[in-house]
Amino acid sequence: MFARARHLAGGSCFVVAFVAAGYAAGVPLAAAQQSASVTEQSYYPPSGDSWARRRSTEAGIDSARLADAVSFALANEIPWLRDMQAQVAKNVAAEPYPDVLGPVKDRGGPSGIILHNGYVVAEWGDTKRVDMTFSVAKSYLATTAGLALDRGLIRDVRDSVARYVNDGGFGSAQNRAITWHQLLNQTSEWEGTLWDKPDVADRRAGRDRTLQTPGTFWEYNDVRVNRAALALLRVFKEPLPVVLKREIMDPIGASPTWEWHGYRNAYVTIDGTRMPSVSGGGHWGGGVWASTRDHARFGLLMSRGGKWRDKQLLSERWVKMATTPTDMKP
């Protein structure tokens, strides 16, 4: 589904490096466990900036290889302009619907953090700076879907979305059988227009191709991702950033600096209240903007099966589902 390891491991403008307890720079699990107590393995950073550190030698990590990894990250900054208004416009210039609809933010330099058993073992750049993080947003969007499933708002990901959402987006012959699972793993083949962007605007497998039966064809398509975000907004009946803040980001001690944006025209009225529908990336602007450190907290939560200290914020079942590659695009 959306929350795949690559999304948790790095953004488009900076790197969030994460080393879990399994393998640390080539050190097998047994050796890593010998060098860390049970208390260390269950460490969670408190809210704020006081994140405990460990020297690489204490963590059983080869210091030379760790330094090489940091040097590699610094030497391989994304070749994008710092002026993100210009860069995003450049990215979409050749598309049939190139209007940038959401806000953008100029980016900083490369930054990153490496954790082992929750402790910081390496950090570089400005890890508190908030940047656009493009498709990292899909991991957060998938998490809101997991929350909906855990709370019974969605009974089964194999259910058709049309059973839950009646806004015209899933009423056609092409769309009415689409399931939540298909919408989340990019095999929905959803057809339509959302926020002035038809699905053909991002048909990367061919704009003139014949649409296939939902569930039989994989295509990365940001219009369909945004349709997933709107469907989840309909289910929760409150903005997804509000849900994410209350259920995930505040409990894991994330800073108050992260943001999740939609487009200037992406609003709906639910039960008499006008609400924004967020985007699942920064393709046409918007998306999740966050610091390296906040992303690292989220990554730590996922690596521990959705549990933060003594509270299960997200079911282990969902974390496993969300981090399992799609068969058609492993």
What do these coordinates show?
It is built from 12 helices and 10 strands. It is an alpha+beta fold and 330 residues long. The strands form 4 sheets. Strands 3-8-6-7 form a 4-stranded antiparallel β-sheet. The longest helix is centred in the C-terminal third of the chain and has 15 residues. 45% of the residues are buried. The N terminus is likely disordered.
Quick structural summary:
Helix content is 32%, strand content 13%. It has 330 residues and is an alpha+beta fold.
Helical amount among residues, as a percent range? 25-40%
Strand order of the largest sheet: 3-8-6-7
End-to-end Cα distance, whole Å, is: 10 Å
Largest sheet data: 4 strands, antiparallel
Q: Encode the helix/strand succession as letters.
A: HHHHHHEEEHHEEHHEEEHEEH
CATH homologous superfamily heading of the domain at 84-104 and 125-291 and 307-323: DD-peptidase/beta-lactamase superfamily
Model regions low in confidence, pLDDT < 50 over at least 5 residues: 2-38
Total helix count?
12
Strand runs, count: 10
Mean pLDDT: 90
Quick one: CATH class of the domain at 84-104 and 125-291 and 307-323?
Alpha Beta
Instruction: Kindly identify the CATH topology of the domain at 84-104 and 125-291 and 307-323.
Output: Beta-lactamase
Instruction: Tell me, briefly, the overall form.
Output: globular
Q: Which range does the strand content fall in? A: 5-15%
Q: Write down the Rg.
A: 20 Å
- The CATH architecture term of the domain at 84-104 and 125-291 and 307-323 is 3-Layer(aba) Sandwich
Determine the structural class based on helices, strands and strand pairing: alpha+beta
